[in-house]
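[worker-b] picked up task from shared queue
[worker-b] task type: protein-ligand structure
[worker-b] ligand name resolved to 2-acetamido-2-deoxy-beta-D-glucopyranose; SMILES cross-checked against name lookup, match
[worker-b] sequence length check passed
[worker-b] input payload:
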Amino acid sequence: MQRSYIVLLLLGFVHAMLQNYTVDETSPNIFYSGYTFPCNTTTCGVFTKGLFNKSVSLTFGSIKFNFTGSAFYAALDLFGVCSISVDGNELGVLNATLAEDIASEGLPISKPDLANGPHTLVIAPTTPGTIIGFDHLIYTAVSPDKKHHVGAIVGGVIGGIVLTIGVFFIVLHARRRNLILRRNQRKSAVLRGITLARHDYKVGADYGTGLPM
Ligand SMILES: *[C@@H]1O[C@H](CO)[C@@H](O)[C@H](O)[C@H]1NC(C)=O
Ligand SMILES: *[C@@H]1O[C@H](CO)[C@@H](O)[C@H](O)[C@H]1NC(C)=O
Ligand SMILES: *[C@@H]1O[C@H](CO)[C@@H](O)[C@H](O)[C@H]1NC(C)=O
Ligand SMILES: *[C@@H]1O[C@H](CO)[C@@H](O)[C@H](O)[C@H]1NC(C)=O
Ligand SMILES: *[C@@H]1O[C@H](CO)[C@@H](O)[C@H](O)[C@H]1NC(C)=O
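[worker-b] inference finished, payload out:
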C-alpha cells in the first residue's frame, strides 16, 4: 500500500512540472522554406476571426519547428496534400479539399506521446499547388520555471508528509484495534476461566446439598 502511495506521489510530481507552450506561426522559431503570405487583420480582415492571435500564414513550402518536449499539437488549414513528420519519421499524410477544410474548421494534428527530448517537426506539401495555412502550435515540455519546480517540490513534500502521517495513523489504528481485540479476547478468556472455576468450585461446594446454583 505504501509503495503505491509513493508511485502516485511521483506521478503527481512529474505531472505538475509539464507545461504547454503555445507558439504563434509568426514566431521567429518557425522556419518556412518558401514564401509566406501573412494573413492578419490588416491583410485578411474578418477572415482571421477565431484564429490564434488573429493570424495565419499561407505557404506553398514546408514548415519546420525544433522543440524540446514530449508532445505537440498543431492547428492548420490545408488545400492539397501534406506530410507530417517528426525526427524524419512520417506520422501521416493529410489530404483535404478546400470544401473539406472549410467544413472541418482547420485540421488538428497531434502527437501526445513522444519521448521527452529534442524533436524536429516538419510539415511539407507533397503535391504541387498545395497551400498550407498555418495558425499555431502547442508543445508540451518540462517547465524550466524555478518557481514551478519549487512549487512542485514543496507540494510533493507536503503531500508526502500528509500521506506518511495518514499511513502511520492507519497502521497505528489497525494495531490498536488488534491489541484491543486481543486484550478483549484475553479478558473474556480470563472471565470464562473465572466463571468456570467458580462454577466448578460451586459445583464442588454445593455438591450433595441439591441447592440450585
Ligand atoms: C496541452 O494541450 C493539449 C491540447 O490542448 C491538452 O490535451 C494537454 O492536456 C495539455 N497538457 C498540459 C500539460 O497542460
Ligand atoms: C501576436 O501577433 C503580434 C503581431 O503580429 C506579435 O507581435 C505577437 O508576438 C503575437 N503573439 C504571440 C503570442 O505570438
Ligand atoms: C499584418 O502583416 C503585415 C505583413 O507582415 C504587417 O506589416 C502588419 O503589421 C500585420 N498586422 C497586424 C495587425 O499584425
Ligand atoms: C533543428 O534540429 C535539427 C536536428 O537536430 C538540426 O539539424 C537543425 O539544424 C535544427 N534547426 C534549427 C534552426 O535549430
Ligand atoms: C487526395 O484526395 C483526393 C480526393 O479525395 C484524391 O483524388 C487524391 O488522389 C488524394 N491524394 C492523395 C495523395 O492521397
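[worker-b] attaching auto-annotations
[worker-b] Residues 205-209 have pLDDT under 50 and may be disordered.
[worker-b] releasing lock
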